[in-house]
Amino acid sequence: MIKEDYKIPVHLTQLISSEQAYQYGIIPVYEDDNIYTFKSYDTSTTLQQELQIVLGKQIKLLPESEANIKNYLATNFRKRDQTHSEQFNYSSDFLEKLISTAKQIGSSDVHFEIYEELCRVRLRLDGKLKEYFIIEQDQYAIIINKLKIRAGLDISEKRLPQDGRITIKTNIEEFDIRVSSLPTLHGEKMVLRILSKDADHIQLSDLGFTEKELKTYKETIKKPNGIVLISGPTGSGKTTTLYATLKLLNDEKTNILTIEDPIEYTLEGINQVQLKENIGLDFSSTLRTFLRQDPDVIMVGEIRDAKTANMAIRAALTGHLVLSTIHTNSAWATVSRLIDMDIPAFLIASTLNVSIAQRLVRKLCPECKIEKAVSSSDFPEQFDIPKDLKKHYIAHGCNHCYHTGYIGRKAIYEIIPITKTLVKHIKNNQLEIDTYLKQEGIASLKTNAVELIKNGTTSIEEVYALLID
């Protein structure tokens, strides 16, 4: 895990940029009114004078080994993509620099938060939030108002939540940001969701399916009609799986329509509609219109209520393939959720092609993960440890993974195709199917999580919740 000795308080890391830290090999350790103190393996007068010119402060340099400087840099400063960094044409505005940095280091969300004595910015990287910047109290409201103006929000309305959108254009790309404001005790909290418009890199084969699961899934989406449902919590990669599916189905012979909130990627050849509930453009009403647009495939961002569920069922019954997401804990729980929405069991049985559950897990850094012998204390109390699980790996942290112990994420799936046997189960309201799943060799989220532990892809800590019965 992260060594505490290498962590630097956020108010010090923001004294210099990541580029400056790496270029000069310096680590901030103290800030006075007119003097900045840095650790460096180069304490020459030349470096001191150059930093005084660049930073406009008196500089004091303390000697530190090059190995430790590298550890400090990897722990506290994310290195940007230099080829992109040089091409970004942003002004000196704080917000522009912050958003460009967040995009370049792969952050999905930017959180602006205000408390009684603290205002801060946190970035979500690989699913985890990390404090990135401290903002002065008197500057916080100014920054929030700038964001609200850019997003087309009402700056005078501070009592109610608001949602908006910002489009960022650079020399190399264009991307959208979804903006959400929330009134809190000490002021407005703002969250920016960075939406990538580039869907070229998304491939079903790269997401995390096993060979068997990928074959099963591809067979179910080849059907000309029916419903494909993907379940999982927010941030589990459901939308990415749907886009990868649409990319596979997209050709000149197929009319594909989507209703989304928000539109996270754009795909050439697909007709995408942005949800706008404030003017009556919701999932169910748009679905009704879609049926008059001669569609072959329809994607609904999320089935949130009975009205939308009924329209999706109707679309599937009239010969269309419908893809959507739903919030449930497992693939089979989707059936119970639809029944709770008062959808008749016989309609679910006749329209549902496949139910999928998915989660995203962080992958251990291959450079620094540490092998350990299996101990019962590492697992949940009721977990039955497989006999062939003799060792596992834990996160450690190194320069390669910015001392987090993890690099990247992958999805794990639970895929239940609705066979004739399951159709009977659904119609008869027999929702206990554990025996059937074992007979058919259908891997659960828990089973796939254990496989990732066995092959050293992830840690027990990362999938602990999935191991609890």
Key descriptive features of the protein:
single chain; 469 residues; alpha/beta; 7-stranded mixed beta sheet; 6-stranded antiparallel beta sheet; 17 helices; 18 strands
Q: What assembly state would you assign to the polypeptide chains in this entry? A: single chain
Strand fraction: 25-35%
Strand tally, please? 18
Question: What structural category characterises the helix and strand content?
Answer: alpha/beta
Widest β-sheet, arrangement of strands: 12-11-13-14-10-15-18
Largest sheet report: 7 strands, mixed
Number of helices: 17
Task: Provide structural commentary.
The chain has helices spanning 10-13, 18-24, 45-55, 66-76, 82-85, 94-104, 137-150, 211-221, 238-249, 283-290, 306-317, 333-340, 345-351, 420-427, 434-440, 445-454, 460-467, and strands at residues 26-31, 35-40, 58-63, 109-114, 119-125, 128-135, 162-169, 174-184, 187-195, 226-231, 256-260, 271-274, 297-300, 321-326, 352-364, 370-373, 391-394, 406-417. It is globular. Helix 10 packs parallel to helix 11. By secondary structure, the protein is of the alpha/beta class. A hairpin with a 3-residue loop joins strand 1 and strand 2. 33% of the residues lie in helices and 27% in strands. The chain has 17 helices and 18 strands.
List the helices and strands and how they pair.
Blueprint: H1 10-13, H2 18-24, E1 26-31, E2 35-40, H3 45-55, E3 58-63, H4 66-76, H5 82-85, H6 94-104, E4 109-114, E5 119-125, E6 128-135, H7 137-150, E7 162-169, E8 174-184, E9 187-195, H8 211-221, E10 226-231, H9 238-249, E11 256-260, E12 271-274, H10 283-290, E13 297-300, H11 306-317, E14 321-326, H12 333-340, H13 345-351, E15 352-364, E16 370-373, E17 391-394, E18 406-417, H14 420-427, H15 434-440, H16 445-454, H17 460-467
Parallel strand pairs: 2-3, 10-14, 10-15, 11-12, 11-13, 13-14
Antiparallel strand pairs: 1-2, 4-5, 4-9, 5-6, 7-8, 8-9, 15-18, 16-17
Helix pairs in contact: 10-11, 13-14, 16-17
